[in-house]
Amino acid sequence: MDEKQLKNDFDANILGVFNTPSIWLDKGKGATVWDINGKRYLDFIAGIAVCGTGHCHPNVTGPLCEQAKQLIHCSNLYGIPKEVELAKRLCNISGFDKAFFSNSGAEANETAIKLARKWAHVHGKKHFEVITAKNSFHGRTLVTVTATGQPKYQKGFGPRPAGFHHVPYNDVEALKETVCDRTAAVMLELIQGEGGIIPASQEYVNCARDICNDTGTLLIFDEVQTGMGRTGKFFAFEHFGIRPDIITLAKALGSGFPIGATLATDDVARVFSPGDHGSTFGGNPLACTAALATLDVIKDEGLVENSAKMGAYLSDAMRLLAASEESYDCIESIRGKGLLVGVSFTRPFASSFKDACAEKGLLVGSIGEFVMRLVPPLMISKEQIDEAVDTIKDVCRIMTQH
Ligand SMILES: Cc1ncc(COP(=O)(O)O)c(C=O)c1O
């Protein structure tokens, strides 16, 4: 394939919100992908924490192909048995009572926010405000980009929907001061993903729950990136021993097939009546098949346990590298939980570091110029982690010109 032509066609035809790709992928298997020229890459970005079961797991592609031959779509005008089965299984695993399916993380969060506002409305409260954290990321729709606590994503899109406030993350006092009788919900990530892999403190999460209890405010955890085993527990909230009223999921839920989910307690969910919300594609047969197959693979292959084990192995290996002479002092710290790992650099070169890794056959992510994101598939092995860390070691040397 002519890559130059592809790039020209990309620039000519795709809305200019993405940089012109320098790598064009063709196929994937497990933690490996190949580009259109046959070059092999070890994938430590996994579609941005999406391909938890690895690329094209046969137990996901098999059921998907079968379902595609049987019924791809029929809308929510008719019942879809697999949607009910998926809701039952997710409620069972999470302890929530009701599920709503959509197609992305942004939509799952949009649903959560609508649910919170309707809940406040039904309870006769004037609450409509939603408090989120500075540096958070909740999506790109007008509401979720407003909920997102990063001005760079909001510039030029005003006027934005009213009723959103951003407070400093992990700041208990700021949260206490901001929640008031107008607040409908507090929405938080338990590890800020797009914000640079910043974990919430136990004290902060405890305090968020207490304040919400005391003020009749809903607590929403955005687990779009942290859910589905990514942090070494099925849901990140399990690390904290705190239950929110609503959680949102997407990314890894369908192993790459688009699906989002909003899970809520009965008390909250019952404020929605027929017609209050909907989605043409949400929870369609193919999406539900992908998510059910994903749940099977996660269980059958012990991927949550592997995420905890391999996450610790990867973080330890990176800490060892950071402390060794081979890091050339370019690594400042290692953050995160399970296989959601952030490596912060002492100098602003994360995007060129990422490009140098790719050159050597390793795909990683960058967040701003100071953080590298490592989010391999949850079935990653020790050998693959060793290979990735060796490459990162090489790149440290190249980037620091030793
Ligand atoms: C925590 C979090 N919430 C929401 C989103 C938005 O998800 P989507 O891109 O599927 O709309 C993301 C995407 O990165 C995310 O990390």
Using DSSP, what is the number of strands? 17
Please tell me the total number of domains.
Answer: 3
Identify the CATH architecture of the largest domain.
3-Layer(aba) Sandwich
Largest sheet data: 7 strands, mixed
Indicate the mean pLDDT: 97
* Cross-sheet strand order for the largest sheet: 4-12-11-10-7-5-6
Beta-strand content: 15-25%
The CATH topology label of the largest domain is: Aspartate Aminotransferase, domain 2
Q: State the CATH class of the largest domain.
A: Alpha Beta
Which stretches are low in confidence, meaning pLDDT under 50 for 5 or more residues running?
A: none
- Structural class comes to alpha/beta
With helices defined by DSSP (H or I, 4 residues minimum), what is the helix count?
Answer: 14
* CATH homologous group name of the largest domain: Type I PLP-dependent aspartate aminotransferase-like (Major domain)
